[in-house]
Amino acid sequence: MGSKSSELHPHLHETQIEGSQIYKGKLLDVRRDRVRLPDGQEGTREYIVHQGAVVVIPITDAGKLMLVRQFRYPLGEVFVEFPAGKIDPGEDILTTGQREFLEETGHVANEWRYLGVMHPCVGYSNERIEIFLARDIEHKSEQQLDHGEFVDVLEMELDEAIAAVRAGEITDSKTITGLMWAEKVLRSDW
Amino acid sequence: MGSKSSELHPHLHETQIEGSQIYKGKLLDVRRDRVRLPDGQEGTREYIVHQGAVVVIPITDAGKLMLVRQFRYPLGEVFVEFPAGKIDPGEDILTTGQREFLEETGHVANEWRYLGVMHPCVGYSNERIEIFLARDIEHKSEQQLDHGEFVDVLEMELDEAIAAVRAGEITDSKTITGLMWAEKVLRSDW
Predict the structure, then answer these.
(1) Residues pairing with A70 in the sheet
(2) Closest to B180 (Cβ–Cβ): which among A32, A119, A180?
(3) How close does chain B come to A107, measured CA to CA in Å?
(4) B180 to A184: CB separation less than 8 angstroms, yes or no
(5) Does B44 sit within 8 Å of A30, measured CB to CB?
(6) CB atoms < 10 A from the CB of A95, how many?
(7) Is the ipTM of this complex over 0.90?
(8) What is the mean pLDDT of residues B57-82?
(9) Beta bridge partners of A59
(10) pTM of the prediction?
């Protein structure tokens, strides 16, 4: 993790002088901090504090990917995405992945492999998304969606999903990241 | 763009009842809307309104990728990313890409190719990031950084950058998305 260690790049480092919470809603926790910049001057940083999330790359016995279709209000469009959801307070990330996969698709998986982490929005959010591969999938129940959650389930071949990235039909960052991982895992030795 | 059209999936669609601006800072514009959910009930959606951004995948004559190293305050870590920046009001996206590439790296490119768009954070931001490939690169000047911007420039082989994704050293979503595009463009017919 060499490039992630700030100690290696002290000439880039910023430190907090003072922090304040600007807004705390049902979803968003907005902060504004006064910071000391690398050149000694002061600056302001505004950002979202997020509890983190998990995305699941589910691969069926037939080798297909399971995805979900969901309306995303900020963009006013329907997106095709891998199943994902926020980490509950105190919840371990494997449990989050298993819970969200069951809730959104009604399926369980018997084989889970942790792949890594991605950061969707480094400029103004501290959100991290932990990535799991899920295999040996079984249908378990109906979807168990939260209030205000409406999700279709679909299956795609890997090639079809990658073609959908090229065509601009899959544009969600956690899903594109998951597809990069899926391609490497399924076709090589990652 | 079939899967993006909400008209195809009316059972997922949400519509605004009322919108309000919660906070308008230097960077963040935070909204909270009352919405009509697909089942007729009411819900709340909180999100960031963003002007959009451009990410540049610069490929040198030697076939290397140019990237930048930057401290990201929300996460308190240094990230390796493709050069990127926000679209100024009224600015066309190619101009944004050329401007940000020059500001962050001191380089210009004579060949620009538009690849597509990605959405970093569909759950709570309307940000879109437009993706350009830049080739035939020349050194032009010093970096022209904004106040509060501190950026190192580096070069990596494509294989090295992809290995860094696997190793968890590159985790930024626009950069991983750019690497997927770069790999396809450089190795196949995308």
Answers:
(1) A79, A151
(2) A180
(3) 21
(4) no
(5) no
(6) 13
(7) yes
(8) 97
(9) A65
(10) 0.96
